Amino acid sequence: MPAPVYRRVLLKLSGEALMGDQTYGIDPAVTTRIAEDVGEIQGLGVETAVVIGGGNIFRGVAASARGMDRATADYMGMLATVINALALQDALEHHGILTRVVTAIEMREVAEPFIRRRAIRHLEKGRVVVFAAGTGNPYFTTDTAAALRAMEVKAEVILKATKVDGIYSADPLIHPDATKYDRLSYLQVLERGLKVMDATAISLCMDNSLPIVVFNLRTPGNLKRVIMGEPVGSSITE
Protein backbone atom coordinates (compact mmCIF):
# COMPACT_ATOMS: atom_id res chain seq x y z
CA MET A 1 0.00 0.00 0.00
CA PRO A 2 1.42 3.45 -0.89
CA ALA A 3 2.45 5.73 1.95
CA PRO A 4 0.38 8.81 2.86
CA VAL A 5 1.45 12.06 1.20
CA TYR A 6 1.13 13.93 4.51
CA ARG A 7 2.37 12.82 7.94
CA ARG A 8 0.93 15.63 10.06
CA VAL A 9 -2.24 17.50 9.09
CA LEU A 10 -4.63 20.04 10.50
CA LEU A 11 -8.30 19.44 9.76
CA LYS A 12 -10.48 22.56 9.85
CA LEU A 13 -14.12 21.83 10.66
CA SER A 14 -16.85 24.45 10.71
CA GLY A 15 -19.42 24.31 13.47
CA GLU A 16 -22.08 24.04 10.77
CA ALA A 17 -20.49 20.76 9.62
CA LEU A 18 -21.60 19.16 12.89
CA MET A 19 -25.27 20.06 12.33
CA GLY A 20 -25.83 17.57 9.53
CA ASP A 21 -29.30 18.26 8.16
CA GLN A 22 -30.44 19.95 11.38
CA THR A 23 -30.78 23.71 11.72
CA TYR A 24 -29.00 23.93 15.07
CA GLY A 25 -26.75 21.97 17.40
CA ILE A 26 -24.82 18.74 16.99
CA ASP A 27 -25.89 15.64 15.05
CA PRO A 28 -24.29 12.57 16.74
CA ALA A 29 -24.37 10.71 13.41
CA VAL A 30 -22.11 13.40 11.91
CA THR A 31 -19.57 13.35 14.75
CA THR A 32 -19.52 9.55 14.51
CA ARG A 33 -18.79 9.68 10.77
CA ILE A 34 -16.04 12.27 11.28
CA ALA A 35 -14.54 10.07 14.01
CA GLU A 36 -14.53 7.10 11.63
CA ASP A 37 -12.77 9.14 8.92
CA VAL A 38 -10.16 10.46 11.39
CA GLY A 39 -9.65 6.95 12.78
CA GLU A 40 -8.96 5.74 9.24
CA ILE A 41 -6.10 8.18 8.69
CA GLN A 42 -4.78 7.70 12.24
CA GLY A 43 -4.50 4.02 11.34
CA LEU A 44 -2.15 5.04 8.51
CA GLY A 45 0.14 6.74 11.01
CA VAL A 46 -0.98 10.28 10.14
CA GLU A 47 -0.83 12.74 13.04
CA THR A 48 -4.08 14.70 13.17
CA ALA A 49 -4.91 18.06 14.72
CA VAL A 50 -8.38 19.60 14.43
CA VAL A 51 -9.61 23.18 14.71
CA ILE A 52 -13.35 23.44 15.11
CA GLY A 53 -15.76 26.36 14.73
CA GLY A 54 -18.88 27.19 16.72
CA GLY A 55 -21.38 28.50 14.16
CA ASN A 56 -23.86 25.69 14.81
CA ILE A 57 -24.38 27.08 18.32
CA PHE A 58 -23.39 30.76 18.27
CA ARG A 59 -21.87 33.08 15.68
CA GLY A 60 -20.11 36.10 17.13
CA VAL A 61 -20.16 38.07 13.86
CA ALA A 62 -23.93 37.60 13.49
CA ALA A 63 -24.60 38.66 17.08
CA SER A 64 -22.34 41.69 16.63
CA ALA A 65 -24.31 42.70 13.54
CA ARG A 66 -27.44 42.73 15.70
CA GLY A 67 -25.90 45.19 18.15
CA MET A 68 -23.98 43.03 20.65
CA ASP A 69 -20.50 44.17 21.60
CA ARG A 70 -18.16 42.42 19.13
CA ALA A 71 -15.61 41.26 21.70
CA THR A 72 -18.33 39.83 23.96
CA ALA A 73 -19.98 38.09 21.01
CA ASP A 74 -16.65 36.60 19.88
CA TYR A 75 -15.91 35.24 23.36
CA MET A 76 -19.33 33.59 23.37
CA GLY A 77 -18.50 32.06 19.99
CA MET A 78 -15.23 30.73 21.38
CA LEU A 79 -17.12 28.97 24.18
CA ALA A 80 -19.39 27.39 21.56
CA THR A 81 -16.30 25.86 19.90
CA VAL A 82 -15.40 24.20 23.20
CA ILE A 83 -18.82 22.49 23.31
CA ASN A 84 -18.22 21.19 19.79
CA ALA A 85 -14.70 20.05 20.64
CA LEU A 86 -15.95 18.03 23.62
CA ALA A 87 -18.63 16.41 21.43
CA LEU A 88 -16.01 15.47 18.84
CA GLN A 89 -13.67 14.18 21.54
CA ASP A 90 -16.44 11.94 22.85
CA ALA A 91 -17.12 10.53 19.35
CA LEU A 92 -13.40 9.91 18.73
CA GLU A 93 -12.93 8.16 22.07
CA HIS A 94 -15.95 5.93 21.37
CA HIS A 95 -13.88 4.72 18.41
CA GLY A 96 -10.87 4.06 20.61
CA ILE A 97 -8.95 7.12 19.41
CA LEU A 98 -6.98 8.88 22.14
CA THR A 99 -7.93 12.56 22.03
CA ARG A 100 -7.01 15.76 23.83
CA VAL A 101 -9.07 18.96 23.74
CA VAL A 102 -6.78 21.97 24.01
CA THR A 103 -8.24 25.43 24.54
CA ALA A 104 -6.93 28.94 24.01
CA ILE A 105 -9.06 30.08 26.97
CA GLU A 106 -8.05 28.35 30.16
CA MET A 107 -10.69 26.01 31.63
CA ARG A 108 -8.71 23.23 33.27
CA GLU A 109 -11.74 21.26 34.46
CA VAL A 110 -12.78 20.37 30.91
CA ALA A 111 -9.69 20.74 28.72
CA GLU A 112 -5.97 21.42 28.65
CA PRO A 113 -4.65 24.94 28.16
CA PHE A 114 -2.78 25.44 24.89
CA ILE A 115 0.94 24.83 25.33
CA ARG A 116 2.61 24.41 21.97
CA ARG A 117 5.24 21.83 22.91
CA ARG A 118 2.71 19.73 24.83
CA ALA A 119 0.33 19.76 21.86
CA ILE A 120 3.13 18.59 19.55
CA ARG A 121 4.01 15.83 22.02
CA HIS A 122 0.39 14.62 21.98
CA LEU A 123 0.54 14.40 18.19
CA GLU A 124 3.84 12.50 18.32
CA LYS A 125 2.22 10.00 20.69
CA GLY A 126 -0.59 9.35 18.21
CA ARG A 127 -3.29 11.35 19.95
CA VAL A 128 -5.74 13.53 18.05
CA VAL A 129 -5.52 17.12 19.30
CA VAL A 130 -8.69 19.20 19.02
CA PHE A 131 -7.98 22.93 19.32
CA ALA A 132 -10.91 24.91 20.70
CA ALA A 133 -11.67 28.56 21.56
CA GLY A 134 -10.05 29.89 18.39
CA THR A 135 -6.96 31.98 19.04
CA GLY A 136 -8.37 33.12 22.40
CA ASN A 137 -8.75 36.65 20.99
CA PRO A 138 -11.82 38.46 19.67
CA TYR A 139 -11.88 39.68 16.05
CA PHE A 140 -10.05 36.55 14.83
CA THR A 141 -11.95 33.73 13.12
CA THR A 142 -11.43 30.01 13.59
CA ASP A 143 -10.02 30.01 10.03
CA THR A 144 -7.20 32.21 11.29
CA ALA A 145 -6.89 29.98 14.35
CA ALA A 146 -6.50 26.99 12.00
CA ALA A 147 -3.70 28.69 10.08
CA LEU A 148 -1.98 29.75 13.31
CA ARG A 149 -2.20 26.35 15.00
CA ALA A 150 -1.10 24.56 11.82
CA MET A 151 2.03 26.68 11.77
CA GLU A 152 2.67 26.22 15.49
CA VAL A 153 2.49 22.41 15.39
CA LYS A 154 4.30 22.25 12.02
CA ALA A 155 1.43 20.66 10.10
CA GLU A 156 2.18 20.00 6.43
CA VAL A 157 -1.24 21.03 5.14
CA ILE A 158 -4.60 22.49 6.21
CA LEU A 159 -7.52 20.29 5.17
CA LYS A 160 -10.56 22.55 4.96
CA ALA A 161 -13.69 20.39 5.21
CA THR A 162 -16.80 21.81 3.53
CA LYS A 163 -20.15 20.67 2.17
CA VAL A 164 -19.10 21.07 -1.49
CA ASP A 165 -16.38 19.28 -3.44
CA GLY A 166 -13.90 22.14 -3.77
CA ILE A 167 -13.60 25.85 -4.52
CA TYR A 168 -16.08 27.45 -6.91
CA SER A 169 -16.44 30.89 -8.44
CA ALA A 170 -19.77 31.16 -6.55
CA ASP A 171 -21.77 28.97 -4.19
CA PRO A 172 -22.62 25.92 -6.38
CA LEU A 173 -25.63 25.13 -4.19
CA ILE A 174 -27.14 28.48 -5.25
CA HIS A 175 -25.47 28.90 -8.66
CA PRO A 176 -25.37 25.54 -10.50
CA ASP A 177 -23.33 27.10 -13.33
CA ALA A 178 -20.49 28.13 -10.99
CA THR A 179 -16.98 27.21 -12.14
CA LYS A 180 -14.91 24.79 -10.08
CA TYR A 181 -11.20 25.48 -9.59
CA ASP A 182 -8.90 22.48 -9.13
CA ARG A 183 -5.87 24.57 -8.19
CA LEU A 184 -5.40 28.20 -7.19
CA SER A 185 -2.66 30.39 -5.79
CA TYR A 186 -3.11 32.29 -2.54
CA LEU A 187 -3.15 35.58 -4.47
CA GLN A 188 -5.86 34.34 -6.84
CA VAL A 189 -8.07 33.46 -3.87
CA LEU A 190 -7.56 36.94 -2.38
CA GLU A 191 -7.92 38.84 -5.67
CA ARG A 192 -11.11 37.02 -6.66
CA GLY A 193 -12.63 37.38 -3.21
CA LEU A 194 -13.33 33.64 -2.96
CA LYS A 195 -14.89 32.79 0.39
CA VAL A 196 -12.68 29.80 1.17
CA MET A 197 -11.13 31.12 4.37
CA ASP A 198 -10.90 34.70 5.54
CA ALA A 199 -8.18 36.95 4.13
CA THR A 200 -6.10 36.90 7.33
CA ALA A 201 -5.92 33.10 7.27
CA ILE A 202 -5.06 32.97 3.55
CA SER A 203 -2.36 35.64 3.99
CA LEU A 204 -0.86 33.75 6.94
CA CYS A 205 -0.71 30.55 4.88
CA MET A 206 0.80 32.46 1.94
CA ASP A 207 3.51 34.02 4.10
CA ASN A 208 4.48 30.58 5.42
CA SER A 209 3.91 28.52 2.23
CA LEU A 210 1.35 26.29 3.92
CA PRO A 211 -0.89 24.51 1.37
CA ILE A 212 -4.67 24.26 1.80
CA VAL A 213 -6.87 21.49 0.40
CA VAL A 214 -10.63 22.13 0.28
CA PHE A 215 -12.77 18.98 0.05
CA ASN A 216 -16.26 17.64 0.69
CA LEU A 217 -16.50 16.21 4.21
CA ARG A 218 -19.85 14.56 3.49
CA THR A 219 -18.39 12.04 1.04
CA PRO A 220 -17.24 8.99 3.05
CA GLY A 221 -13.54 8.23 2.59
CA ASN A 222 -12.64 11.65 1.17
CA LEU A 223 -10.33 12.47 4.05
CA LYS A 224 -8.27 9.35 3.40
CA ARG A 225 -8.21 10.07 -0.34
CA VAL A 226 -6.76 13.53 0.30
CA ILE A 227 -4.14 12.06 2.65
CA MET A 228 -3.13 9.52 0.01
CA GLY A 229 -2.64 12.27 -2.56
CA GLU A 230 -5.65 11.51 -4.77
CA PRO A 231 -7.03 14.46 -6.78
CA VAL A 232 -9.88 15.33 -4.43
CA GLY A 233 -11.34 18.83 -4.05
CA SER A 234 -9.31 21.97 -4.73
CA SER A 235 -5.84 22.99 -3.58
CA ILE A 236 -4.35 26.38 -2.78
CA THR A 237 -0.58 26.70 -3.06
CA GLU A 238 2.04 29.21 -4.20
Topology, pairings included?
Layout: E1 8-13, H1 28-42, E2 47-52, H2 60-65, H3 70-94, E3 99-103, E4 112-113, H4 116-124, E5 128-132, H5 142-152, E6 157-162, E7 167-168, E8 180-181, E9 183-185, H6 186-191, H7 199-207, E10 212-216, H8 222-227, E11 234-237
Parallel strand pairs: 1-2, 1-6, 2-5, 3-4, 3-5, 6-10, 9-11
Antiparallel strand pairs: 7-8, 10-11
Helix pairs in contact: 1-3, 5-7
How would you sum up this structure, described in words?
This protein is of the alpha/beta class and 238 residues long. The two termini are 30 Å apart. β1, α1 (28-42) and β2 form a beta-alpha-beta unit. α1 (28-42) packs across α3 and α5 runs parallel beside α7. The strands form 2 sheets. Strands 4-3-5-2-1-6-10-11-9 form a 9-stranded mixed beta sheet, sandwiched between helices. The longest helix is centred in the middle third of the chain and has 25 residues, at 70-94. The mean pLDDT is 96. The protein has 8 helices and 11 strands. The relative contact order is 0.16.
